[in-house]
Write a structure and sequence with these properties.
This protein is α/β, with parallel strands linked by helices. It is built from 14 helices and 16 strands.
Length: 417
Amino acid sequence: MQRIGRQARAASTLMAAASTAAKNAALRALARRLREAGPALAAANERDLRAAVAAGLEAPLVDRLRLTPQVIATVAEGCEQIAAMPDPIGEITGVKRRPTGISVGQMRVPLGVFGMIYESRPNVTIEAASLAIKSGNACILRGGSEALHTNLALAALVADSLREAGLPDTAVQLIPTTDRAAVGLLIAMPEHVDVIIPRGGKGLIERISREARVPVIKHLDGNCHSYVDEQVDLEQALAVVDNAKTQKYSPCNATESLLVHAAQAAAFLPRIGAVFAAKGVEMRACPRSLALLGPLPGARLQPATEEDWSTEYLAPVISIKVVDSLDEAIAHINRYGSHHTDAILTTHHPHAMRFLREVDSASVMVNASTRFADGFEYGLGAEIGISTDKFHARGPVGLEGLTSMKWVVLGQGEVRQ
């Protein structure tokens, strides 16, 4: 780990000075290699999938582990999208001339070295690598043991692409061991690592936050809400809520809790309940919701408990509550939500604006599926993770989230009096 750390620190110096052309060349080479390596990547991934199933890994985690041709195509496109984006490094903004004659502004610079600790999803290897390359950082990646063979195959493509572009292949390093002691060492090397980004289950992130000796960019839960307002296009709300919950169950931006205004409950809940029943989604509902959902044939219904309101299921389960006002909806979300992503379905502009202002979450949406809370969908090219912290980076963390600002002063021989 010390050797990997030293190599990362040395590579970060070279990456900070790398030209935009070289970084873009590495990203385009990586996109090309990803498309060419489909069969080899599929073989490595199949090896991990078989081992995961044999080990009894839960279905949502196996789903996250799967590297489909569509996933490969998406991350390859992400590399090209990042290559096409403006290079933020070296940008000087906010320059103002002071009465003393000096000019003061800020320059955007790389963070240096970030450590990335993640579980299951091997696409994170490419997303982290591509963002590190374009932002002029070095990174140390520690994927889950269940994805080791897939991640090793992907990391080899990254190293080849860096070398092709004349950049240090140690700018992106994958820790090749499954020994958990490596994580403890990675988060305790402030001399080599500037920031840690954990991306995985709540237990992992809590451990990293508790034990890390370097700053951490993180989110703990994805308890996302969709709220159907008093004034709403019911057809639109039906389509959006269905997508927000059932398009994919395992991501952190899937809706886990549905709030419906009492004025629309009788019209909306039986219809969305029928959709959920047809798709096998279990509904954990408040008493008023149960009364409206109870007559549905085949519905999987349970009374909601207090714990349900704050639970991230990552499964075909949703909590449902009828509320009497926008105020109650906002208060419920701010109390029980995880400050990740929350959406309002409404045709009433003042309510939409209040929701945007008052819901204390990293992403807040109007008439859109919470599943859009993603760096790729936001046009960031890819994301390194989602932050629910309120300093430096918040929401999907892309290129700018992997940079910081330093003050620059431009003078012509001025001295302080």
